[in-house]
Amino acid sequence: MKWLSFKLIYLYRAIAPNRIRSACKFEPSCSEYALLAIEKYGVFKGWKMTLGRLMRCKPPNGGKDYP
Hints:
By secondary structure, the chain is mostly helical. It has a domain at 25-62. The protein is 64% helix and 6% strand. It has helices at 2-15, 18-21, 30-41, 43-55; strands at 26-27, 63-64. A two-stranded parallel sheet has the order 1-2. α1 runs antiparallel to α3 (30-41) and α3 runs antiparallel to α4 (43-55). It starts with a helix and ends with a strand.
């Protein structure tokens, strides 16, 4: 499952328009956060953390946020 998650994230990075990928207000980017969270906490908890991060992706949120 982990390898499939990583492949999906890399696919997103390859096909998502640059204007979407460069609009991330957080550091690391949301896709990098997903990779780190899945690696550190496993697939299910990593995706749950990533979805929570995506829900916070609106002003005034932003800044450094590591899993």
